[in-house]
């Protein structure tokens, strides 16, 4: 029988960026917060001298254990889903800090177009621009409303960057200057300029200089060691929850962090969330943690799954289009081009997670779609993240995948090949969604989350258009051979592509078509807030973390209002549309 614990003001399920932000803001306001994290505790000292590519890059040392908890996957409703036995297409993290430990650090603001995508598309191109069962919709908030929260997150993380003429408008400069440029980035920038585009240095959470944030936490200067993605930073120079918001919460004396605590159920009474039930993964003991407010701050897929297995909200039905929990799952499209150089050599082994250059000329609605049969686009970037020897084997098409020739060309092109990659937007489709698997269960006896997803005509058309641009820039850079990426006939759960999953608990202004309001408070359970990229009504042309951070700060503000007023559904601020 589960042991009942003393009630607290707020409990968070997960302690990464979102859980850390909620904890820091609520404890600073005087509230008691318990953070439940199913993984182990981690800090900068745990990452000293761990440049172990095999352990972290190949064997996923910081990621979720699929032998205990995974997802099942299928392309469409007519297939039987099968469990993902090894991590592939995306890499859910585990442990304190979550994905904020092993991320690369690219920190973008979604565009004003993203937040009002349906209204703006309909106004400019008509309501029939995108034909078919696409379910894109406005987010219930404008960029003008969300902009102060973007800046709040950038201040907390000390983001290094520069003005972007094609990006979201800014009222303030970045907290720190952009990172260093390099010959590789300069080659991309010059080629882009020659073609009439507008390159900028990528906004980065690998800081260009030491920075003390408004909460008094110090983030160190990046050392360009090249071990960012899938690694924790041994220098404390990659902004993460572990060096920013979590220490801030702990200093208040009102935050209790409990690790190895796997939440398996949200407890409800009278239509309100009253706490959670969790399992101590070491001892096997069960506990119930009561709270005035429950905040889901886990990974996208887990937020959706917990609501479904706790019977909270209306599950989405793709056949009727009714319901909201599990709706609008989106991934990301990756148009790209690889260039092979015979004479030029580059120091590709050096770098940092967000050391890169980007153009946004083909992102959002920055280019005219009148004669195109798709919407949106994507950022186009070159990055110098630091190639590591085991997983970096770029070779021209036709090269064997093993053997003598493979080894020779792997060595030859290790520092003679470059890649330009776009993060293409993903527009939701009626048939792409999440629900509970009727067959497979996890280690604790709960149903796995089932993902039903495949590429759409919109995806293919966007991919083709943006890939061509990537190839043109690479040719302008002087590559001897340029190979453009192709999108596969069907999405596959392997190999790794991007961890940028979104949707499932989407935000909006209408309870009939969204699960949470623009404070991320559930329409169907006023004391329950669901924070993260699960709130995205579609996936944009950027990494999601900057927008996740902004929404988390807005949600923290909403939770404070909820507690101050003693409950009740929060009144959303009136969205002043850019169309007015």
Automatic annotation (TrEMBL):
Q: Which SUPFAM superfamilies match?
A: FAD-linked reductases, C-terminal domain, FAD/NAD(P)-binding domain
- Homology family: Belongs to the GMC oxidoreductase family.
Q: Where along the sequence do coiled-coil regions lie?
A: none
Q: Which UniProt keywords apply?
A: FAD, Flavoprotein, Oxidoreductase
Q: Where is this region: Disordered?
A: 158-177
- Please name the source species: Filobacillus milosensis
- What GO molecular-function term can you cite, just one? flavin adenine dinucleotide binding
Q: Which domain of life is it from?
A: Bacteria
Taking every annotated instance into account, which residue ranges of this chain make up the domain Glucose-methanol-choline oxidoreductase C-terminal? 428-552
Q: Which residues form the Glucose-methanol-choline oxidoreductase N-terminal domain?
A: 219-329
Record protein name field: GMC family oxidoreductase
Pfam families with a match to the protein in the record: GMC_oxred_C, GMC_oxred_N
């Amino acid at each position: 029988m589960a042991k009942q614990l003393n009630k607290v003001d707020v409990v968070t399920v997960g302690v990464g960026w979102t859980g850390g932000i909620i904890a820091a803001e609520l404890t600073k306001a005087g509230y008691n917060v318990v953070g439940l994290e199913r993984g182990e505790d981690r800090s900068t000292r745990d990452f000293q001298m761990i440049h172990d590519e095999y352990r972290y890059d190949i064997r996923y040392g910081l990621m979720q254990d699929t032998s205990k908890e995974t997802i099942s996957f299928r392309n469409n409703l007519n297939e039987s889903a099968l469990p993902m036995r090894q991590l592939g297409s995306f890499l859910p993290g585990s442990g304190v800090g979550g994905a904020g430990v092993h991320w690369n650090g690219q920190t973008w603001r979604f565009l004003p177009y993203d937040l009002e995508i349906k209204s703006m598309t309909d106004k400019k191109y008509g309501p029939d621009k995108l034909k078919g069962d696409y379910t894109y919709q406005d987010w219930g908030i404008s960029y003008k409303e969300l902009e102060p929260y973007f800046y709040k997150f950038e201040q907390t993380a000390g983001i290094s960057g520069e003005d972007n003429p094609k990006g979201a408008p800014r009222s303030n400069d970045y907290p720190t200057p952009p990172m260093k440029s390099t010959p590789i980035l300069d080659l991309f920038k010059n080629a882009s300029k020659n073609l009439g585009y507008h390159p900028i240095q990528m906004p980065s959470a690998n800081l260009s200089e030491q920075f003390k944030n408004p909460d008094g936490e110090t983030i160190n200067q990046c050392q360009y060691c090249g071990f960012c993605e899938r690694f924790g930073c041994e220098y404390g120079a990659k902004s993460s929850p572990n060096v920013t918001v979590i220490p801030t919460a702990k200093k208040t004396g009102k935050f209790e962090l409990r690790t190895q605590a796997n939440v398996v159920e949200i407890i409800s009474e009278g239509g309100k969330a009253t706490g959670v039930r969790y399992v101590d993964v070491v001892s096997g003991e069960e506990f119930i943690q009561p709270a005035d407010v429950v905040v889901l701050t886990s990974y996208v897929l887990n937020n959706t799954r917990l609501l479904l297995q706790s019977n909270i909200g209306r599950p989405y039905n793709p056949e009727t289009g009714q319901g909201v929990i599990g709706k609008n799952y989106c991934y990301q499209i990756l148009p790209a081009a690889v260039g092979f150089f015979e004479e030029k050599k580059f120091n590709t082994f050096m770098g940092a997670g967000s050391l890169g250059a980007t153009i946004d000329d083909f992102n959002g609605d920055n280019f005219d779609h009148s004669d195109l049969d798709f919407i949106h686009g994507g950022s186009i970037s070159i990055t110098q993240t630091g190639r590591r020897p085991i997983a970096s084997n770029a070779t021209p098409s036709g090269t064997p995948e093993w053997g003598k020739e493979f080894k020779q060309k792997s060595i030859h092109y290790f520092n003679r090949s470059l890649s330009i990659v776009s993060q293409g937007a993903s527009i939701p489709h009626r048939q792409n969604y999440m629900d509970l698997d009727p067959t497979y269960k996890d280690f604790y006896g709960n149903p796995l989350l089932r993902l039903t997803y495949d590429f759409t005509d919109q995806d293919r058309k966007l991919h083709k258009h943006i890939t061509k641009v990537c190839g043109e820039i690479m040719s302008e850079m002087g590559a001897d051979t340029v190979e453009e990426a192709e999108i596969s006939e069907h999405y596959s759960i392997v190999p790794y592509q991007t961890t940028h999953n979104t949707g499932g608990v989407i935000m909006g202004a209408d309870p009939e078509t969204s699960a949470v309001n623009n404070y991320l408070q559930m329409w169907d359970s006023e004391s329950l807030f669901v924070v993260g990229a699960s709130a995205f009504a579609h996936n944009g042309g950027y990494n999601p973390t900057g927008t996740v951070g902004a929404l988390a700060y807005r949600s923290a503000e909403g939770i404070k209002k909820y507690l101050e007023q003693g409950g009740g559904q929060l009144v959303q601020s009136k969205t002043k549309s850019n169309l007015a």
